[in-house]
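Repro:
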Amino acid sequence: MSLDGVPQAELLFEIIAECSPPEDMGTIDGGKARMIPIVGGTVSGPRLSGTVMPGADWSIMRENGVATVEARYALRADDGSIIQIFNAATTRVGQPGEDGVMMITTPRFIAPEGPHAWLNHGVYVGTLVPDMSGSGFAVKIGVFLMR
């Protein structure tokens, strides 16, 4: 934390989550629901490296442009440890070119005892940006520890 009490963000790692096409789930809770399968990916950065294990992203997009997103999947660290991740956001989604396409998320981790247990005890912020640069659909998630 800086001397003036303003929290600082430390980049821990970046997740590139590869996804399958969304599955439409109809209207739920007043919005268009869909599930996006997470099928793999990579984790790299100064504090963690590994791969993304399968999971899914569940979202509801309301007509007023407010979206709620909840993703649950796991990361396999290079040492073999499996770390659960829950990543949630509620945001207003604009059109590309308006407010950008980045979402701010609040990731939470469940890590086993050992070298990655520090993930169980922090306040984290994520940045989520769609990545259409490859052959499929992916999202880039920057994970930051707030200090």
